[in-house]
């Protein structure tokens, strides 16, 4: 028989255990009630998960580039049979996925180092940005025997087909819209991305057109990301296409995003003239269109240019704006070139365009310094000082044609 003190001790222990159990039960009840209330809130709006959130998650999944297998791309392209075009980079094939989405598959060829550089440039830029005037990158494939980039398919191909090959189906109004849209895409790269993106190869072949001839900037194989606090970029090799590349690129000087502005200016001249800027089959005075355009503007004879280019009376105001913008864009000094966001506004007629008073090609005259007396501009649209003196560079002159058409060889490039 237990003693009295022992019995009291057992009763106390039982009381403690009962208290602990009751506390634990209360906690469980509280947790269950919280879960019940949470479930009740969700059940009040069952579409929250099944529609809104599911769509959001699906959209997020499709926003990022997909890594395809070589087998998937072989099936989509019918074993790479529908060739859209080819070049030094490789070939582009049309493909269709099982969900009906048409794509353009660029298969990269070349040296291992060159492929990797172009591959990383395209994926690192287009893979992180989205804009209505930039071609969309759906995904990529990087395997031992297939390195490819998968883009949205652009049914009307590139702009050059409608400028240089006798194809006149696009009216001047549509060409003006294409110029504005292209400018918007470049402005986004320069001014709206978290890291500034310099394209380096703006030209008609890299402006693609969708089914409605809506323009999208493409081919980011030479593109480079740049921190916004870094004003100049030092290049170790040539980038771009001769005839569109800015003088500072040719000279391998430190460059800025304004090299794209120069290239866009050269593109504008070709849109205005519907011809290559250099055409030796034309009379000597017109064979290099940018120089001829400047001379006609300086002499106040743009009417002759409009007639030669076949521009109707109703389009002349927009055409004059394009000529003036093109002249500003191809200024020798990068500081005198406008920002692309300003280019958009000037092309749209939202900003008055100062009359260019500086010959953009004066630097082609040996030993001639350029003194730029920049006009006052109340909106501070051009990020430049009021005056700038540009010193000449040492050129190793080539043939007479090379001297006349900016196809210069910088002596530093031959060292």
Automatic annotation (TrEMBL):
GO function terms (MF aspect): ATP binding; protein serine/threonine kinase activity
Membrane topology label: Single-pass type I membrane protein
SMART domains given in the database record: S_TKc
SUPFAM superfamilies recorded: Protein kinase-like (PK-like) (SSF56112)
EC number annotated for this UniProt entry: 2.7.11.1
Classification via Pfam families: PK_Tyr_Ser-Thr
Chief location category: membrane
Domain of life: Eukaryota
Any single Gene Ontology cellular-component annotation: membrane
Protein kinase domain mapped to chain residues: 78-358
Regions that span the bilayer: 12-32
Subcellular location: Membrane
Similarity comment: Belongs to the protein kinase superfamily.
Annotated protein name in UniProt: non-specific serine/threonine protein kinase
């Amino acid at each position: 028989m237990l003693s009295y003190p022992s019995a009291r001790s057992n009763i106390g222990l039982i009381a403690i255990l009962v208290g602990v159990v009751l506390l634990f039960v209360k906690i469980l009840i509280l947790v269950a009630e919280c879960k019940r209330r949470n479930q009740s809130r969700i059940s009040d709006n069952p579409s929250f998960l099944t529609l809104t959130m599911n769509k959001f998650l699906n959209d997020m999944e499709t926003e990022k580039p997909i890594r395809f297998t070589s087998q998937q791309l072989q099936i989509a392209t019918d074993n790479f049979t529908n060739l859209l075009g080819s070049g030094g980079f490789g070939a582009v094939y049309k493909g269709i996925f099982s969900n009906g989405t048409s794509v353009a598959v660029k298969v990269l060829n070349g040296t291992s180092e060159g492929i990797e550089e172009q591959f990383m440039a395209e994926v690192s830029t287009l893979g992180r940005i989205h804009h209505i005037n930039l071609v969309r990158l759906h995904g990529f494939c990087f395997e031992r025997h297939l390195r490819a980039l998968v883009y949205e398919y652009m049914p009307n191909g590139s702009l050059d087909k409608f400028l240089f090959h006798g194809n006149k189906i696009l009216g001047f109004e549509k060409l003006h819209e294409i110029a504005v849209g292209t400018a918007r895409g470049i402005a986004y790269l320069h001014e709206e991305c978290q890291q500034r993106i310099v394209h380096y190869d703006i030209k008609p072949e890299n402006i693609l057109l969708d089914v409605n001839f809506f323009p999208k900037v493409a081919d980011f194989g030479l593109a480079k990301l740049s921190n916004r606090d870094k004003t100049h970029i030092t290049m170790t090799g040539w980038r771009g296409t001769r005839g569109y590349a800015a003088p500072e690129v040719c000279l391998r000087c430190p460059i800025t995003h304004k090299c794209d502005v120069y290239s866009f200016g050269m593109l504008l001249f070709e849109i205005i003239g519907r011809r290559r800027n250099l055409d030796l089959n034309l009379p000597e005075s017109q064979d290099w269109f940018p120089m001829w355009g400047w001379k006609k503007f300086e002499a106040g004879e743009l009417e002759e240019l409009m007639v030669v280019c076949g521009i109707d009376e109703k389009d002349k105001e927009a055409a004059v704006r394009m000529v003036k913008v093109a002249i500003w864009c191809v200024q020798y000094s990068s500081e005198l070139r406008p920002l692309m966001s300003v280019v958009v506004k000037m092309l749209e007629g939202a900003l008055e365009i100062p009359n260019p008073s500086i010959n953009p090609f004066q630097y082609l005259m040996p030993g001639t310094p350029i003194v730029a007396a920049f006009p006052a501009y109340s909106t501070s649209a051009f990020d430049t000082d009021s005056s700038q003196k540009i010193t000449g560079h040492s050129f190793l002159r080539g043939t007479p044609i090379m001297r006349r058409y900016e196809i210069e060889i910088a002596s530093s490039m031959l060292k």
